[in-house]
Amino acid sequence: MLEDPTTMEVPDDDVLYHVGRIGSHFVVMVVCPRMGIEPAATALANMRRSFRNIKHVLVVGIAGGMPCYGPDLQEQIVLGDVVVGVPQQGRGGVTHYEFGAWEGQKELTVKEHTLHPSAALLAAVNNLRSMHMQVVGSKIPRYLEELRRGLNERSRQAYEDPGAEYDHLFEDSYLHTDRGRFCQGLCDATRAKLRKSRGKRAERKSDQPHIHYGNIGSANAVVRSSAKRNELHARHNIICLEMEAAGVMSDYQGLVIRGVCDYADSHKNKKWQGYAAATAAAYAKELLLLLPAGGGSSTESSLPDERNGTRGDGWYVGRDQFHNSGGGFMNFNMGAGYQTNNNTAGNQYNAPFYGHPSAIPQWPKY
After folding, report:
1. What digits encode the pLDDT tens for the residues 87-103?
2. How would you classify the pairing of strands 82-85 and 211-218?
3. Could you tell me where the DSSP H helices lie in 101-167?
């Protein structure tokens, strides 16, 4: 998804960063080393220390989805759809449903403590929602096609839509019995609904995921239970579940974007993870291209010095700066385990640096 991608190591920071551009934004990305709220918070803290001029934060990755939600459960999420965390019903878009106080014998009273996305990000989301209602619709298919063109055949397959025949929604009462085996050949397919049989939302063309806006649940525990998933939806109006966002949103006004790769039930599998990661990244790119790059000057504030680094072709990269005339941008990309998080493939991280040969200068002596 990045233009001019390359990797960067920062002194006194053990993380490998992936930098490049999306439109007028300069972007730095990091892969969370482990699942969980605390690793996510640590990764963000390290990145903000190494890149002081970060202006916006996006948490992009995969999640488990609530199959049906809304009044009378009329809204339907299918695998590959995208969920965006936005404020609703007094919530900021992310609920840390494990954070609160135990009262009585078994009752956890959840304390809302996460922040909502910044005004600039919410404005971009609202503008994009309006644009998606028009005839042209989303640009996600175009960005997915561009992504695949840059990959070899083997890697490309991981980011293709697996197809409706692999989107099984099993009955809540029908449990997966062996975590060491996949559903195929083990689970009774007659106990599942296929995506193509679940109404008009299933009639979309390939690469046309639906975008859902609502409350995202975040905690340190994986949910592999349809009963627990349904309970969390009933109590907190949660429409998807993941394991990192609360660590970011507790201290920063970011935006969480998740591709749905399973239904948070006992029938979890990895078949949809690559495609779901790609649809989330494609939405993020479309959003960034709509978000103005504001503030900053590439003259005085970007002058090289001994402490901060050197400047080249508008970039200013050093321990304390990641600055450009667009004001700087961070895309904080995380997912769960399997996901590569730049949503292309591992070899894309090592792609050659296209153009602007002086944009990433040599690190100065500190």
Report:
1. 987 778 999 988 767 66
2. parallel
3. 119-132, 140-149, 153-157
